[in-house]
Amino acid sequence: MNPNDSRPIKGRSLRLAKSLPLCLFTVALLASRSPAAENSHSATASNAYTFTPISLCASCSTLPIGVAANGLISGLYFDAIGNLHAFVARNGNYLTVDVPGALFTEAGRSNEPGQTAGDYLAADGIDRPFVRNRDGSFSLRNGAPGASVTIGNDINNRGDVLGWFTTDPNGQTGFQGYVLRGNNYILTFAYPEADVTNTFAIGFN
Question: How far apart are the two ends of the chain, measured CA to CA in Å?
Fold first, then answer.
């Protein structure tokens, strides 16, 4: 999906596209605490962390969403011409992830077995969740009933997918959280306050 496209931008991509002109050439960073810093109360900010750049290409805008315990990094990026893709990476090796036939694909977090949750915009204009398996195959899931957008943001070791959805035709407001097991939405929820318009389920504990 190109951010200059006139089609409506839904879900997670809406927030990214709004900031794209300012961050097209931004490189994402991961920080990890060094063992020495863990054992030293006098470590300064300059030597307490090791920074690893996460970037698919020099002209890409890259957003890593999660790092699994097994070191698998997953997220999404805009390429040099503004098209949106998912990616997974390990040990500096990057792999673009695109659901076949999708207008765009974006990935959330991964679990320890190597599955990655995400979502894709199909040709019918509906955003639906998917699971990418360790062997590279896709398990495409149904969107929440009546939803225009269903974002897949996390997956636990059992394979349950967590995210948020809305039935708003424009995909702008009214988001609720969900847990998806297979193709069954076993839980949906929203923050119980009248003035709260959106609930985003970011990750499992």
Answer: 32
Give the separation between CA 54 and CA 112, rounded to whole angstroms.
20
Report the distance separating Cα 34 and Cα 26, nearest Å: 25
Determine contact, residues 126/103, Cβ cutoff 8 Å: no
The torsion angles phi and psi of 180, rounded to 5 degrees, stand at -115, 125
CB 129 within 8 Å of CB 161: yes
Write out the E strands in 39-115. Answer: 49-54, 61-67, 73-78, 84-90, 93-97, 104-110
Q: Which residues, given as ranges, of the chain have pLDDT below 50? A: 1-9, 14-28, 31-34, 37, 41-42
Instruction: Give residue 188's pLDDT.
Output: 97
Nearest-angstrom CA–CA distance, 173 and 8 = 13
Model pTM score = 0.80
Count of CB atoms situated within 10 Å of the CB of 177: 20
